[in-house]
Amino acid sequence: MATTTTRYDVAEHLRNEEEMRLYIEAAFEEAGDDAAFIAKALGDVARARGMTQVARDAGLSRESLYKALSGERSPDFSTMLKVIRALGLRLHPEPLSA
């Protein structure tokens, strides 16, 4: 008997604003210098929230948003800032722990 698996989609499990915020926060902590990793996490949250609405709020086309947040490449920082703002988030720098 063969085992059947399905692809896990984290966007299906991000149910509220707090979970989405914590997910993005964890992604920033884990990403290191990998901007594509952050883009993928933002894409997960955007899909959980509704990609069409996020694209509209960011002033981007839905197709370009999917490409930018696929995790296959690092999008422009300006695109990431637009998405972060459209998701109702804000970046705030804080010193690294010594």
From TrEMBL:
This is Putative addiction module antidote protein. PANTHER family: SSL7038 PROTEIN. Residues 51-96 form the HTH cro/C1-type domain. One of its GO terms (molecular function) is DNA binding. Pfam families: dnstrm_HI1420. It comes from Trinickia symbiotica. Signal peptide: none annotated. InterPro entries: Cro/C1-type_HTH, HI1420, Lambda_DNA-bd_dom_sf. NCBIfam families: dnstrm_HI1420. PROSITE patterns: HTH_CROC1 (PS50943).
